[in-house]
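Build the 3D complex.
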Amino acid sequence: MNIIRLEDITKKFGEGTKQTAVLQDISLSVEENEMLAIRGKSGSGKTTLLNILAGIDFPSSGSYYFRDKKISLHNQNDAAKFRRKYIAVVVQHFALLDDLTAYENISMALWSEGISNKEERKRVESIMEELDILPLKKKYPTTLSGGEKQRVAIARAIIRNPDLILADEPTGALDEVTGQQIVSVFQRLHDNGHTIFIVTHDEAVANQCSRTVHLRDGIIAG
Amino acid sequence: MKFCRKELFRNILTHWKYNLLIFLELAACVLMVFVVLYNLNILTSRSSSYISGISDKRYYSMEIEEGSTSFIRESKQLQSQISKIVSTIETYPKWKAYSYAGNSFGLPYDEFGEKVVPEIFEEGYESGKLNTGNPNLQVLKAYSFTPQVFSSFDMKISEGRLFNEDDYILKESEGESTSVILGAAYKDYFKVGDTIHGWGNTKDMKLHVVGFLEEGTLFSSPEFVNMITLDRYIIYPMHSKMIMLDHSETVYPGASALLWMGNIVVSDMSVDVQKEINAITNTYGFPGIKCTQWGGTYMESTENVSQRNIILLSGLALLLCCLAAVSLTHVLSRKAEKNMRSYAVYLISGISPREIIISILMEALLYAALAVLPAVWLSLIQFKTMVVPLYKLLLISLPIVLVSVIPAVRLIAKINLDQLARRKSE
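Done.
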């Protein structure tokens, strides 16, 4: 079954004659429990595609189906609800808040869930243990290495047990060894049943995914 | 709600300089408006009394003509006629006649050596010269009134009762207490039925509280430049007669005060007061009593000056509120801009813009609530009560904060999540 189906998605920026199409008639399907890589050069539209899938940005035209249900997001409130229910996003530069501890950066995703402090602690510690970052729970992001930060960001993304994990250049800010460790984390999550959608320009990362889609100038090239 | 609570706490800690600035600006506004409202309250009660009490009545003060006082003292016949003249003037159908006298009461400090009531209740407070003759005694403001004072000034009782006939009789027997009516502000310290021990005419004088005047009860006399509120005064009955220890009765000396410092209130504008008084004194062969009209003109001019001050103060308060609103708008927008990356992270993590905006509004409400605290503190320290209701103070701080927060909320509504999500950690 498709978890995602895109039909003729186009995204244009600008207005009138100055409009530029970043994505043109993208049609793409992602199966449940698939680990898909989107590759392409800078400016090819990879991140825009991921943003549309996450509801961070909205398409200019075309249809977006999530588990065969058409998604029509009109504003950020609807998009936030959609993300909270189904999707987790991991961004290249981790998006951690420096004045919160690693624990708080992860638990943040549960703050609007209405769960007790006890339940929150149980879930956060369990996910930190799974990603080998439990000893870092009281540390602030500025004292963490790039790999540790990315693990914290992944922990925050998966703590709500999302159906789909979207990762934008998850190894882009990391060295090769650390990058490989992060990819292993994604593989482990994939093995545990998560559907993963990785945007990368790194061939090594793409090679470890079950399928790779190439994007060139906003068009799927293969 | 958990997010709102956490975000509120986080914002208070991380942006304490901004928060302090917001608090100080709002508190200054509320304090300024508090001063205006307090003065406006006084002005309103004065002017309403002026309209209801003075405009349709004429007030006259009475004074025995110069040189007659010693003549009366020497003439036993005239002395015996004093009570008849007083009675005639008091019961004359064309006017109301009343007299009063300044008084005081010495209230000892409590068992901890502290003052029982604030200094504003003491004599000399307004001039800054408190009576410090006895360091353990508060000399409180008081008046003695004849029964007609209450009706002449439309004074009403909010609790308890007015003086009865018995209250106007001074009994010399030991252990007797004097009935008193207290101003409204005394309600915080005493209640009807209380007996207050202190120093008055005797070393151990006992005051028995029989009632409280309505808040804002006003009184005036020829020597005042404006009307005064009796909220912090003790009102004694002006005794008309005295019962001695041997049960014999005598006219109390104060009873003749009407002739020396009495006042007449006339509602019928056609009455020639001086002519009528002359007729009464001539009947008894009594020396002339000079009647002088007072009130009205200088009370009106005092009111105008106060009104002008209020207008000036209000203008200043309005200016300060506008300045604070502009400044707060800038500070809150700047704070929102600084927080924009955090908001983006929240949004990516599944927290909705609505929740973020609610957290910002909650923070704004907290500022508004905190900003009234200095005014509350000032009111309680200065007056021991809230002279301006709390809700009125909140009605100042809340709109300023809510107006100022609009641009910050609009910034969040227009957040460019894509751009912020791609931005590197700062």
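Confidence is low (pLDDT under 50) at residues 47-53, 296-305 of chain B.
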